[in-house]
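Quick note —
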Amino acid sequence: MNDEATATAATVFTGGDREFAEERRQQVARFVSTSPDYYARQFERIGSESKFVPTWNLWAAVFGPIWFCARGLWNYGLSFLIIETFGFVQIVRGLFGDLATEAWERIAKIEGTLELRRQQLAAAIESNSDKVDVYKRTVESLENAIGGIRLEAQQMEDSGLMIALFGVVVLVLVKIAQGVVANTLLEKRFSDWLSDPSIRSGVELRQIGISTTFVAIILAATITHYSFPGLYPWLIEFPTEPPIRLTSIRGVEAFFTAAVTHGEAFFDGITYGIRLMLDGLELMFVQTPWMVIASFIVLLTWLSAGPRNAVYSGAFLAYMGLLGFWEKAMTTLALLGTAACLSIVIGIPLGMYCARRPRFYAFIRPIMDFMQTMPAFVFMIPVIAFFGTGKPAAVVTTMIFGGTPVVRLTVLGLRGVPESVREAAISFGASKWYLLTRVDLPLAAPSIRAGINQTIMLSLAMVVVASLIGAKGLGEDVLEALQYANVGQGILAGFAILFCAMILDRIVQGDRK
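Predicted structure written out below.
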């Protein structure tokens, strides 16, 4: 009786395995469209092991980036295309390229100079001049230089075969890598497709056409450029139109001229407000006795981050005082404090508003990307046009560069508040204000503090740049050290800026809860 029950259970179990295997095979067939039996076996091998299982896909090795892109693996296809293009370039350069072109051009230029010096030498010998020896040494030096460059050019021409072989090795290695990893990458995409059917599956003719055309254009343009240099100049230089550039320049200048003319009162008001706040902070940091400010900073660090960090802050302040950086360090803190406070006062409410309004956040995100990625020297140009030079312009420049992290991290922190916690608070009758102040902000506080910290750090990074437009402080010492190659002054002032950053970091990111 027991044997019969065991046999029945085994039959049911085997039947279940067969149904599961058949269902998985059908899923693989729907996903890959081609060679379902082959991919079903490979996916089973790969899925049964937790480590990497090397397999071989001939079509992926032969067609390379085309296969990967046609299967929807564009990230890997583009990476392999770059490496394959590099291999083809080395092959073409080694077999058909003129590797010594630059060397021969240098020789032609030196030969022109050498001919002139020979004529001068002949004239000096004929006139029995005192400069005969000078011309002789010059001619010999130029002849030796030509000989060395000729030897270099010959070596470069002889290295063509090695360069081509290197390209072949690169191409073979990337083909092997493509064949080995193809099934593993496709199996991972298959697993993602099982949980998300919206992922594209199969091999569409449109995808094959797009990937083939893209790969063919890249390879054809690259190989043509290196095989027949100069045949198609537009492959080297982008076809530009100078009138378009000049028209764009005039348009930008006209826009800023109109903005400065019609917005003078607005920009003067902003400048006046910034100067009021800056003057107040400078009065507090610079004019107050140093013992009061130092004691206040050390005590604040103690309360925020503990006694050890307070000792470090005291040592940093002593460093700035003993080396004569105290007044400039306090001026820097006043400038930084103005920019950071304005950035935080504007950034946190803006982040709170964006956290619950995705469309508005999607609108201002490109603006913040522009503010963070545009080089500081570029957006200093309109800042100077609107606010002139001096400390208010430096504050605005610092706010543009360092004001975005507090917005981003405030949005991140508020969006990271668990919905279950918010729903529980709402179910107990929490108002919107209570929900914001007692639930959202406390839970998002670590992220918001990190945003404040990043804003302060990025503002300090602008200290030296801001000194270019009239801001005083430690950045002025670093700028002078760069201008006059004063290594000692630059290094010491740089450490003072570093210590200011560390003090502020300890106060804002204190260890104590």
